[in-house]
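S.,

Sequence below, as promised.
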Amino acid sequence: MSYTSDKIKGKLSIAAICCLFLLYFSVVPLFDILQPLVLLQAKQHPAIFSAVQAGLCLIVFFCAGTEVFVKGFNAVLQKKCCAQSLIAVGASIGFIYSCFAAFFPAKGGTDYLYFSACALLVSFALYFYYVQQHAFETAYQRTEGLQSADSTVYILRENEEQQVSLGDISANDTLVVYHGQALPFNGINQKGNALVDESHIFGYSIPVVKLSQATLYAGSINCGDTIYYTPILYPAGQERVPPDEEDREEESTDFTDYVDTPVASLICEPSFPSFTFFCTLLSVFVVLALLCGVFWFLYNGNFRSAFFFFSSTLFCCGIVGLLCSGNLLYGMAVARGLEHFVVFKNLQALLYSGKINTLFFDKTGVLTKNEIEITDMAALTCSETKLLSYAAAILADYDDPYTQAILKMAKMRKIQIPIKEKGSVKNSFAADGAVEGTLVLVGTPDFLKSKKVNFTSGDALLSNYTQKEKTVLAIAFNGELAGLLALGDVPYASTRETISVLHSLGLLSCMLTGDTPHIAKSIALTTGVTEVYAGLTAAEKAQKVALRIEKGQIAAMAGNDDNDTLALDAAHVKFVVYAAKQQIWQHGNVLLLKPDLTPLPYAVTISRCVAQLQKINILIGILLGLCSLAFACGILSAVINLYFTPVIALLFIFAAFVLCVANSYRIHFQKLK
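The prediction came back faster than expected:
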């Protein structure tokens, strides 16, 4: 929108005042009361009376010019007819006829004038725009506090830590990134090992350990201790070269920086679904207007009467256009969506959300929590409580996702963690120590086997966990295997139910992930996703979406990471799930303000409710238009001797507006899934 809701509100106030005066001038000639000043009386000074009304109507037109007329006629010129086109055509033809009738009056008196009806029609359209823009701004106010990006970073200069802006970074600086923060640039790790989450690059949900002098990638999240690294800066305009396929795990594969031409050619902009309908409707009214005018001219040979019926018919298309406008319903839908943590960023996204038939999901952070949890536990020679408490005691000094998962489980079970007496190995994948007189080893199965621990009793379980692509930590007491812990990324508790609801709505679900097929299929079985595509790069995800669109399907993509931006841009509807990486929100046209998918079915059902209510609004508009034509063309004159007077025109428009608003408010009472 070109104006804020406050500016549109100011224009609407001016238009409303003008409409009040126009309504007064329309009613006064019918009654012998409340006569205006002598110069403004219709009978004594018809030209001045008409000129004042035309001036007031023009003020209303100028107030709504950008929102109604400019967009409406531009849509016609660009062959993309819309509801604004119907309103603009109807109001313009009504104004032209009124000017013709006012300043070239028929012999014996002035014809009926429709200045007030045209102004009221345009004012209602402006009101609909105000509701839409107000809803648009309300939605962004709701999300404004959630969208934040740090523009500064900490560096080491002269052995002192300083905070500087990103633009002041040089290649010789040492950047400091604390736990939970994202790396702003590619770089080389300088001090010790670094534990980072690279899921936005490779799609893997498990953080990786980077040794000293290893390459770190922009956007990775620090999951361990403070990272000190030297940035790799690219000169402005220099393109990054994609790595070879075999070097994918060693070099950056941020495919958001470069898109292969074949993929880009598949990404297409969806056409607005109502284009054909509006063109057809406008064409019907134009043809009907011509037929009415020609019929009446042939009937009585009166060109003025023929022009009157032609104008009245086209004016009715403005009433229908008002009812076809989705602006009011958009405002209502945004308000209802916010109740269920859904933000529709534009009207097109609202209309498309109910038409989608294929839903694509990223796995990490969308279907799953993107955090490590204990998924399986096997206590072989002791109780689970003792197994957890001793493992937690050994790992309590470390800060990594695996240790945090074990400590979280111990806390949930309210287990008292004993104190570690001694230890020599310092790694969450290989740690030892003494707890309450027991020598405890915690680490990978390979680490324990290197310490001569016998795995005969745990081989079957270990094989089972490995097939599920779980990370396994083994615990041994005094050299004997005590138990196994399987850790991995797990789905949200609500994911399976949400997917089931989406299936009941007739949608096909597809997972797009960079993880291995074993992990992807395991998550798909748990969540109920129908189709799985694993081992994909960002560009390949976009291809999967674009190919479905090529086949005529209306596709949506749900993502929350940089690795999803290409697929989001390729989809008709782009659901962005709330997450820490809010810079990708600009790639979405529907925002889900919860970390899981629970708001998504509400987005679909709200859109479908809007479509149903819009059909009713259109039906109301067409019926009122036909009634208007019945009066305008004199069909009912033989029965009730009444033509399409300005007062009746106002009544039709007012009735259409009231019915439209009342019907649109029904969205607040619709039952949603």
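Confidence is low (pLDDT under 50) at residues 145-150, 234-273.

Coffee later?
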